[in-house]
Amino acid sequence: MTEADDLRQHYRIVVVGGGPVGSLTALELARSGIDVLVLEAAPHTTDVPKAGTIHARSIQLLTRRGHFAAPDVDAGAASTTFHYAGVWGLEITAPPGEGPAIAGIGQSDLERLFTARLIGLGTPVLKAAMVTGVDQDDGGATVTFTHEGRTRRVTADWVVGADGARSIVRRSVGFPATETAPTAAALLGLAVLDDPATAPRGWVRTERGWTVLNVNHGGFSRIITFDLDGPHEDHRRPLTAEELQETVDRFAVRPVPFRNARSLSRFSDYSRLVDDYRFGRVLLVGDAAHVHFPLGGQGLNLGIGDAVGLSWRLALVARGQADPSVLDAYSRERHACAAGVIANVADQRERMRIGVDGDRLRHELDVLLEDRDRNRALGSVISAQSQPAPSTLQDAARGDFAANTVLETDTGVTDLIRLHVAAGNRGLLLGGDASESVRALVEPCWGERVRVIRARNLGPTTVLVRPDGEVAWSGEPGDGSELVARLAETFGGSATRARLTSAGTR
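Structure (tokenized):
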């Protein structure tokens, strides 16, 4: 937390939105030594009945960034059962040495964790700061906000919009987006069930609609209803406890009495995806960039991927080590991931419909889930492990996700995740036989951006791994020209200068 009077006029980066995605983005930048200000509209963190599923790829990213404890590299693959379109039986598997396939952590808990670490680094986090507009020119951006009844302005080299589905940053700057109109209506709330022992647990489909109850004996249970027959007549009309009770009873085809309802809201299958995550000096992450039907617990996980995918690149740009064009790669990659999620939640919605068509699609799903290979492939989609797919380091090609593995270095035996944590915001260039020649080629130009490590058990292979775990290049270095080109493309800098520098050392 900070006070408005303590703020300076200019910051390198302003992050608008201090939820879990915005605070993670800011934290990653601050840990890289970047001057960041966080503006959050809410006065404090609130516990809401929203995202609570952290999928495998998010766990893998957060362990590599040092936010979760590193797993045991010798542990086997971890699997769990999940749901698709309300049907349980989907298998989600994390590779060996990568930790659990799913973690139950609420978004409020993540926000508190990241915010506390931000404050510990001395990064200003201003709560109850309502951003009203963002203006930009070639030199930077101006953020206007209100705080305690006063209008204030700060300037920044870059602005990151992490301010949710109704993002003022997105609307103020004018990001073009592709939208799909809603066809379904859903209700959400927390309440104490009068008779939790007999309440319909989990995902239940009747001839009238769906109920989803996460039953808590003696405490607040999360209650959701899905109506696939059409959208809300007025999605902005406040939801009442009476409407939620009537809908639950109607869809369950029997009374499911509850009391003390709170955190009531409506949502739908409306989707929106910005055409580009970057507009000049402004970038988007999380729900500010993409909105979709919340099936499969994928929204928060998309945002975590956005935060990690953006922050290491934006740190390079903010330090003047890379051209802003590297940010366009962030936009392309994350747009593809979000488009994939929007497609799979639309498929789930169709399989949840009531009637003959829905029955047919659900039968197809039952057949699919019985096929182990197809089941696990679909589980990889839901857990974000298909973009990119994991691969062992020795076999990894460009675009793969380098799975954790044991590495024999000059300082001892370790593993890939621990090397990522120690490298901070730098990439890793892991080489076997040719490590010294690679070091002479790389360190003069990229030493601050890439850590070169000899891994004796890699043999002749050299692998360049980004801070987010994706392989940027792999192979035998040869004359180094291909490696140098990939370093320049990924981490900025001049490939020509690198070749000249290398030639001068021979």
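The longest strand covers residues 150-161. Residues 185-269 form a domain with the Alpha-Beta Plaits fold (CATH 3.30.70.2450).
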